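Dear colleagues,

I hope this message finds you well. In preparation for our joint manuscript, I am sending the Pentapeptide repeat-containing protein (Actinomycetospora chibensis) sequence together with its predicted structure, so that both groups work from identical material. I would be grateful if you could confirm receipt.
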Amino acid sequence: MSGAPAGPAPRSAAPRSADCSRCLALCCVGPGFAASADFAIDKPAGTPCPHLRADHACGIHAQLHERGFPGCVTFDCFGAGQQVVEVTFGGASRREPAMFAALEVLRPLHEVLALLDEAVASPAHGRAAADLRARVEEMVTRDAEALGTVDVGAVRREAGAVFDGMVAEAHAGHPSGDLRGRDLRGADLVGQDLRRRDLRAARLRGALLLGADLRGVDLDRAEMLGADLRGADVRGARLAGALLVTGPQLVAARGDAATTVPAHLRRPPHWIPSAP
Ligand code: SF4
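The corresponding C-alpha coordinates are as follows:
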Protein backbone atom coordinates (compact mmCIF):
# COMPACT_ATOMS: atom_id res chain seq x y z
CA MET A 1 0.00 0.00 0.00
CA SER A 2 0.92 3.68 0.01
CA GLY A 3 4.61 4.21 0.60
CA ALA A 4 5.75 7.51 -0.88
CA PRO A 5 4.53 11.04 -1.60
CA ALA A 6 2.91 11.57 -4.98
CA GLY A 7 5.02 13.27 -7.66
CA PRO A 8 4.58 14.26 -11.31
CA ALA A 9 2.37 11.85 -13.20
CA PRO A 10 3.83 10.55 -16.47
CA ARG A 11 1.27 8.61 -18.51
CA SER A 12 1.77 4.84 -18.61
CA ALA A 13 0.04 2.28 -20.84
CA ALA A 14 -0.13 -0.64 -18.45
CA PRO A 15 2.42 -0.89 -15.64
CA ARG A 16 2.87 -4.28 -13.96
CA SER A 17 4.21 -3.12 -10.64
CA ALA A 18 3.07 -0.54 -8.14
CA ASP A 19 4.61 2.91 -7.98
CA CYS A 20 2.93 4.58 -5.01
CA SER A 21 4.52 7.93 -5.91
CA ARG A 22 2.29 7.99 -9.00
CA CYS A 23 -0.94 7.11 -7.19
CA LEU A 24 -3.27 8.90 -4.78
CA ALA A 25 -3.18 6.17 -2.11
CA LEU A 26 -6.36 4.65 -3.52
CA CYS A 27 -5.69 1.35 -1.75
CA CYS A 28 -5.50 3.12 1.63
CA VAL A 29 -8.93 4.67 1.12
CA GLY A 30 -11.12 2.53 -1.16
CA PRO A 31 -11.09 -0.97 0.37
CA GLY A 32 -12.58 -1.59 3.78
CA PHE A 33 -10.88 -3.95 6.17
CA ALA A 34 -11.79 -5.63 9.43
CA ALA A 35 -9.46 -5.84 12.39
CA SER A 36 -7.52 -9.07 12.03
CA ALA A 37 -4.00 -10.47 11.96
CA ASP A 38 -3.49 -8.47 8.77
CA PHE A 39 -4.94 -5.11 9.86
CA ALA A 40 -4.88 -3.70 13.36
CA ILE A 41 -8.09 -1.71 12.96
CA ASP A 42 -11.53 -1.70 11.35
CA LYS A 43 -11.68 0.66 8.40
CA PRO A 44 -14.88 1.22 6.41
CA ALA A 45 -14.63 1.24 2.62
CA GLY A 46 -14.17 4.66 1.08
CA THR A 47 -12.63 6.26 4.15
CA PRO A 48 -8.95 7.14 4.51
CA CYS A 49 -6.89 5.01 6.86
CA PRO A 50 -6.02 7.13 9.93
CA HIS A 51 -2.34 6.54 9.17
CA LEU A 52 -2.58 8.07 5.71
CA ARG A 53 -0.83 11.42 5.48
CA ALA A 54 -2.01 14.43 3.53
CA ASP A 55 0.75 13.86 0.98
CA HIS A 56 -0.72 10.39 0.19
CA ALA A 57 2.11 8.56 1.95
CA CYS A 58 1.70 6.08 4.79
CA GLY A 59 2.66 7.57 8.14
CA ILE A 60 3.81 4.21 9.50
CA HIS A 61 5.33 2.74 6.35
CA ALA A 62 8.54 1.68 8.09
CA GLN A 63 6.70 -0.02 10.98
CA LEU A 64 3.78 -1.76 9.28
CA HIS A 65 4.62 -5.20 10.69
CA GLU A 66 5.29 -3.92 14.19
CA ARG A 67 2.11 -1.81 14.19
CA GLY A 68 -0.08 -4.74 13.11
CA PHE A 69 -0.56 -4.00 9.41
CA PRO A 70 1.18 -6.88 7.56
CA GLY A 71 -1.75 -6.90 5.13
CA CYS A 72 -0.56 -3.54 3.84
CA VAL A 73 2.91 -4.98 3.22
CA THR A 74 1.62 -7.87 1.15
CA PHE A 75 -1.00 -5.92 -0.78
CA ASP A 76 0.09 -5.14 -4.33
CA CYS A 77 -1.99 -3.38 -6.96
CA PHE A 78 0.33 -4.52 -9.79
CA GLY A 79 0.38 -0.94 -11.04
CA ALA A 80 -3.39 -0.59 -11.22
CA GLY A 81 -3.36 2.43 -8.89
CA GLN A 82 -1.27 4.60 -11.15
CA GLN A 83 -3.23 3.32 -14.14
CA VAL A 84 -6.44 4.63 -12.56
CA VAL A 85 -4.94 8.01 -11.74
CA GLU A 86 -2.87 8.61 -14.85
CA VAL A 87 -4.84 6.87 -17.59
CA THR A 88 -8.45 6.25 -16.57
CA PHE A 89 -8.72 9.65 -14.88
CA GLY A 90 -6.21 11.45 -17.07
CA GLY A 91 -3.71 12.53 -14.44
CA ALA A 92 -6.18 13.58 -11.76
CA SER A 93 -4.73 15.25 -8.67
CA ARG A 94 -7.62 14.50 -6.31
CA ARG A 95 -9.32 11.26 -5.34
CA GLU A 96 -12.92 10.73 -6.39
CA PRO A 97 -15.25 7.81 -5.58
CA ALA A 98 -15.38 6.49 -9.16
CA MET A 99 -11.66 5.76 -8.92
CA PHE A 100 -12.28 3.00 -6.39
CA ALA A 101 -14.63 1.15 -8.72
CA ALA A 102 -12.05 1.43 -11.49
CA LEU A 103 -9.37 0.07 -9.16
CA GLU A 104 -11.52 -2.98 -8.37
CA VAL A 105 -11.58 -3.84 -12.07
CA LEU A 106 -8.03 -2.87 -12.93
CA ARG A 107 -6.22 -4.60 -10.09
CA PRO A 108 -7.18 -8.16 -11.14
CA LEU A 109 -6.57 -7.28 -14.77
CA HIS A 110 -3.09 -6.02 -13.96
CA GLU A 111 -2.38 -9.18 -11.98
CA VAL A 112 -3.42 -11.25 -14.98
CA LEU A 113 -1.12 -9.17 -17.18
CA ALA A 114 1.82 -9.77 -14.85
CA LEU A 115 1.20 -13.53 -14.96
CA LEU A 116 0.69 -13.56 -18.73
CA ASP A 117 4.13 -11.96 -19.09
CA GLU A 118 5.49 -15.29 -17.85
CA ALA A 119 3.12 -17.42 -19.92
CA VAL A 120 4.06 -15.82 -23.25
CA ALA A 121 7.38 -17.68 -23.07
CA SER A 122 5.56 -21.02 -23.26
CA PRO A 123 6.44 -22.64 -26.60
CA ALA A 124 3.00 -24.19 -27.15
CA HIS A 125 0.79 -21.72 -25.31
CA GLY A 126 2.69 -18.49 -25.71
CA ARG A 127 0.61 -17.41 -28.68
CA ALA A 128 -2.65 -17.77 -26.74
CA ALA A 129 -1.06 -15.93 -23.81
CA ALA A 130 0.13 -13.12 -26.05
CA ASP A 131 -3.28 -12.84 -27.69
CA LEU A 132 -5.05 -12.58 -24.34
CA ARG A 133 -2.42 -10.16 -23.06
CA ALA A 134 -3.03 -7.86 -26.02
CA ARG A 135 -6.76 -7.87 -25.36
CA VAL A 136 -6.31 -7.17 -21.65
CA GLU A 137 -3.82 -4.39 -22.47
CA GLU A 138 -6.61 -2.78 -24.49
CA MET A 139 -9.18 -3.28 -21.72
CA VAL A 140 -7.08 -1.48 -19.12
CA THR A 141 -6.96 1.67 -21.25
CA ARG A 142 -10.77 2.02 -21.36
CA ASP A 143 -12.56 4.87 -19.66
CA ALA A 144 -14.22 4.42 -16.28
CA GLU A 145 -17.66 3.67 -17.69
CA ALA A 146 -16.36 1.06 -20.13
CA LEU A 147 -14.24 -0.54 -17.43
CA GLY A 148 -17.43 -1.19 -15.51
CA THR A 149 -18.62 -3.53 -18.27
CA VAL A 150 -15.48 -5.69 -18.28
CA ASP A 151 -16.21 -9.28 -17.24
CA VAL A 152 -13.23 -9.82 -14.95
CA GLY A 153 -14.34 -13.37 -14.16
CA ALA A 154 -14.32 -14.29 -17.84
CA VAL A 155 -10.82 -12.85 -18.23
CA ARG A 156 -9.64 -14.86 -15.25
CA ARG A 157 -11.19 -18.06 -16.59
CA GLU A 158 -9.57 -17.59 -19.97
CA ALA A 159 -6.22 -16.83 -18.32
CA GLY A 160 -6.63 -19.89 -16.12
CA ALA A 161 -7.03 -22.10 -19.19
CA VAL A 162 -3.85 -20.62 -20.69
CA PHE A 163 -2.00 -21.24 -17.43
CA ASP A 164 -3.29 -24.85 -17.34
CA GLY A 165 -1.79 -25.44 -20.76
CA MET A 166 1.46 -23.75 -19.84
CA VAL A 167 1.81 -25.81 -16.64
CA ALA A 168 0.96 -29.09 -18.38
CA GLU A 169 3.61 -28.31 -20.97
CA ALA A 170 6.20 -27.54 -18.29
CA HIS A 171 5.39 -30.77 -16.46
CA ALA A 172 5.51 -33.06 -19.49
CA GLY A 173 8.54 -35.28 -19.18
CA HIS A 174 9.58 -33.77 -15.86
CA PRO A 175 12.61 -35.73 -14.58
CA SER A 176 11.00 -36.29 -11.19
CA GLY A 177 8.80 -38.96 -12.83
CA ASP A 178 5.28 -39.88 -11.74
CA LEU A 179 3.47 -36.67 -10.82
CA ARG A 180 0.41 -38.37 -9.37
CA GLY A 181 -0.06 -37.32 -5.76
CA ARG A 182 1.38 -33.91 -6.50
CA ASP A 183 -1.92 -32.39 -7.56
CA LEU A 184 -2.45 -30.24 -4.49
CA ARG A 185 -4.69 -27.60 -6.01
CA GLY A 186 -6.65 -25.91 -3.24
CA ALA A 187 -5.14 -28.23 -0.62
CA ASP A 188 -5.17 -27.20 3.02
CA LEU A 189 -1.51 -27.41 3.99
CA VAL A 190 -1.67 -24.77 6.71
CA GLY A 191 1.18 -25.11 9.16
CA GLN A 192 2.38 -28.42 7.74
CA ASP A 193 5.99 -29.54 7.70
CA LEU A 194 6.59 -30.12 3.99
CA ARG A 195 10.35 -30.40 4.11
CA ARG A 196 10.31 -34.09 3.15
CA ARG A 197 7.67 -33.80 0.44
CA ASP A 198 8.76 -33.92 -3.18
CA LEU A 199 7.03 -30.83 -4.48
CA ARG A 200 8.86 -30.57 -7.78
CA ALA A 201 6.25 -30.03 -10.48
CA ALA A 202 3.49 -30.07 -7.86
CA ARG A 203 0.28 -28.24 -8.60
CA LEU A 204 -0.22 -25.85 -5.70
CA ARG A 205 -2.74 -23.56 -7.37
CA GLY A 206 -4.82 -21.97 -4.64
CA ALA A 207 -3.22 -24.14 -1.95
CA LEU A 208 -3.29 -22.85 1.62
CA LEU A 209 0.32 -22.80 2.72
CA LEU A 210 0.00 -20.32 5.59
CA GLY A 211 2.79 -20.95 8.06
CA ALA A 212 3.90 -24.11 6.24
CA ASP A 213 7.49 -25.24 6.61
CA LEU A 214 9.05 -25.25 3.17
CA ARG A 215 12.63 -24.77 4.27
CA GLY A 216 15.03 -26.09 1.66
CA VAL A 217 12.23 -27.48 -0.52
CA ASP A 218 12.85 -27.69 -4.26
CA LEU A 219 9.83 -26.14 -6.00
CA ASP A 220 11.15 -26.56 -9.50
CA ARG A 221 8.22 -26.16 -11.91
CA ALA A 222 5.71 -26.22 -9.06
CA GLU A 223 2.64 -24.22 -9.99
CA MET A 224 2.10 -21.49 -7.39
CA LEU A 225 -0.85 -19.60 -8.92
CA GLY A 226 -2.87 -18.08 -6.10
CA ALA A 227 -1.16 -20.16 -3.39
CA ASP A 228 -1.41 -18.46 0.00
CA LEU A 229 2.14 -18.23 1.32
CA ARG A 230 1.49 -15.91 4.24
CA GLY A 231 4.00 -16.71 6.94
CA ALA A 232 5.30 -19.77 5.06
CA ASP A 233 8.92 -20.49 5.89
CA VAL A 234 10.73 -20.63 2.56
CA ARG A 235 14.24 -20.16 3.86
CA GLY A 236 16.61 -21.97 1.54
CA ALA A 237 13.75 -23.04 -0.72
CA ARG A 238 14.27 -23.13 -4.46
CA LEU A 239 11.54 -20.95 -5.91
CA ALA A 240 13.56 -19.82 -8.91
CA GLY A 241 12.05 -22.47 -11.18
CA ALA A 242 8.52 -22.30 -9.77
CA LEU A 243 5.70 -21.28 -12.09
CA LEU A 244 3.30 -18.34 -11.77
CA VAL A 245 4.76 -16.86 -8.62
CA THR A 246 3.94 -13.23 -7.86
CA GLY A 247 5.77 -10.57 -5.88
CA PRO A 248 3.10 -10.37 -3.15
CA GLN A 249 3.48 -14.11 -2.52
CA LEU A 250 7.19 -13.65 -1.90
CA VAL A 251 6.58 -10.66 0.35
CA ALA A 252 4.09 -12.66 2.39
CA ALA A 253 6.51 -15.56 2.92
CA ARG A 254 9.58 -15.70 5.16
CA GLY A 255 12.68 -16.25 3.10
CA ASP A 256 16.37 -15.64 3.47
CA ALA A 257 19.46 -15.06 1.38
CA ALA A 258 19.53 -18.76 0.45
CA THR A 259 16.03 -18.71 -1.03
CA THR A 260 16.12 -18.53 -4.81
CA VAL A 261 13.41 -16.51 -6.57
CA PRO A 262 12.26 -16.32 -10.20
CA ALA A 263 14.50 -14.05 -12.26
CA HIS A 264 11.69 -11.61 -13.06
CA LEU A 265 10.84 -10.99 -9.39
CA ARG A 266 12.58 -8.90 -6.77
CA ARG A 267 13.80 -10.47 -3.54
CA PRO A 268 11.82 -8.91 -0.66
CA PRO A 269 14.13 -6.55 1.22
CA HIS A 270 12.88 -7.72 4.62
CA TRP A 271 13.98 -11.34 4.12
CA ILE A 272 16.59 -12.17 6.69
CA PRO A 273 20.17 -13.09 5.80
CA SER A 274 21.08 -16.79 6.14
CA ALA A 275 22.46 -17.95 9.45
CA PRO A 276 26.29 -17.98 9.40
S1 SF4 B 1 -1.42 1.54 7.44
FE1 SF4 B 1 -0.39 2.77 5.88
S2 SF4 B 1 -0.31 1.44 4.04
FE2 SF4 B 1 -1.83 0.56 5.44
S3 SF4 B 1 -3.81 1.44 4.77
FE3 SF4 B 1 -2.99 2.78 6.41
S4 SF4 B 1 -1.89 4.40 5.32
FE4 SF4 B 1 -2.18 2.71 3.86
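For the figure legend, we might mention the following. The CA atoms of residues 51 and 91 lie 24 Å apart. The helical segments are 70-74, 80-88, 98-119, 126-139, 144-147, 152-171, 247-252.

With kind regards,
E.M.
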